[in-house]
Amino acid sequence: MITKNKIQTILIVFATAILFWILPWAVKLGTNEGSGYPFTYYSCIINQFIQTIHEKREFKYVDLDGNEYNREVYDSIVPMFNYRQLMQDGRLPDTINGIEISPQILRSNQFYFRFNPRNYNTRKINLYPMFESMSGRVKLESPDDMFSAGNKIRFYDAESNKLKHKKSDKFQTAMEKSGFQFPAQWISGNPSARKPYDEGWFMLDANGQLYQVKMVNGKPFVKNTRAGEKLNVVWMQTIETSNHRFYGFVFDSEQHVYFLSDVTYELVKLPIEPFDLKKDQMLIMANLFNWNVVVTRDQQREYNILDNKTMERVDEHTEFRKLSRWEKIHPWIFPFYIEFESFKSTFVYPRFGGWSAKALLLNFLIAMGFLIYCKRYKKLVKAVNILFVLATGFCGLFALQLFKSRIQETKNIIHLK
Fold first, then answer.
1. CB-count exposure of residue 26 (10 Å: 0-12, 13-18, 19+)
2. Could you give the CA distance from residue 100 to residue 104 in angstroms, rounded to a whole number?
3. In terms of DSSP bridges, do strands 281-286 and 267-269 run parallel, antiparallel, or are they unpaired?
4. In degrees rounded to 5, what are phi and psi of residue 99?
5. Helix (H, G, I), strand (E, B) or coil at 223
6. In a domain, 292, yes or no
7. Residue 145 resides in a domain
8. Which of helix, strand or coil describes residue 197?
9. Is residue 298 situated within a structural domain?
């Protein structure tokens, strides 16, 4: 049976939870400040990291030894990043490090890849377009149907939503003949038609085997990459590079990162520290000579410079982030806080974070002050209320007093009547 005391307790706990969401949010907003890392790029001319630092509304270009460069010199020592500006100025050299270069060569060896935990921590809609990979057209054309891959692969007309039996059976048969075991665990690919070419979709089957599935001249192309035989594949993110060197990046259960080579499906491991799909961010800025692999973790950013051909690490650097005012304050005033959104995920639900024992000192002072107040004014106070305030601090005290006061006012009204 639900009694008034139980309802009161539920309301107090609910109000406390709301306060642990609203008050930390307000404090975080009030202490907001710009904090981050300087943009860092590796120079293939001086073989040194160059940082762009914003100070007093001006940009400074310095290397790790403290040497400062003006903008024109900066453009010259990072030609892979600023080659368009050098072209406009007529200062783009014919050769760099003994290798002949041209805008076309530079573009074909340049790509940017970005991974955010949201790419992994999100729910996908099980509807995908199957492009024609050999259409002969300059631009890809969006198909008039979408497919889903659960226990079977099924194609649906986009306008009428009717099942296309013939096309579905054709792909289902091709996938079964290639050894694909349904249901598919996940599907990875680029659903946009605004890409230079199409390599279809990569699917992880029920046995952990990674398959490539695409449509070529109207017929299904299905092939086992054999990546699942070499490692425990967790996730893959595709990318279309100008030189067709690889299909995308593969992440395994050991927190290693590989790229899956084009045609041969060879797995090439990136020589970086273990990468957590659920927490870490990655940015790869590749050029003719090097890959700038930037991994951002909670309190640090790691720069790994890899040789473009051998994939060996030629240099590395780590930047540590200073704690923001919010990160310095909240451990002393909140034992924890509640958030509903996170930049690491697209899911919205209550998240408990920021656990800190330091806030118990403030909670103890608040609880003692509450006890002294009740004793002084001869107010009845239960031991469980003191313990509640000790655990939750002023959030719990505010909720406790709010509903205690409301109940007392109700009793007074009833008594007067």
1. exposed
2. 11
3. unpaired
4. -110, 130
5. strand
6. no
7. yes
8. coil
9. no
What is the rounded distance in angstroms from the CA atom of residue 207 to the CA atom of residue 126?
Answer: 20
Tell me the β-bridge partners of 201: 213
Residues 237 and 116 in one domain: yes
Residue range 62-89, pLDDT digits in tens: 999 999 999 999 999 999 999 999 999 9
| Tokens encoding 288 | 């003719």
**Tokens linked to 389:** 């305030």
- Please choose, from the candidates 19, 108, 410, 103, the residue with its C-alpha nearest in 3D space to the C-alpha of residue 286: 108
DSSP character for 343? T
Rounded to whole angstroms, the maximal C-alpha distance in the chain is: 98
CA–chain centroid gap for 239, Å, is 16
**Residue among 292, 298, 293 at smallest CA distance from 280:** 298
Model confidence pLDDT, tens digit, residues 40-52: 999 999 999 999 9
Provide the residue range defining the domain that includes 18: 1-35+323-417
- Residue by residue, what is the 3-state secondary structure of 119-187? HHCCCCCCCECCCECCCCCCCCCCCCEEEEECCCEEEEECCCCCECHHHHHHHHHHHHHCCCCCCCCEE
pTM of this structure: 0.87
Q: Who's near 386: CB < 8 A, 6+ residues apart?
A: 367, 370, 371
**Is 294 exposed, middle or buried (CB count within 10 Å of its CB: 0-12, 13-18, 19+)?**
buried
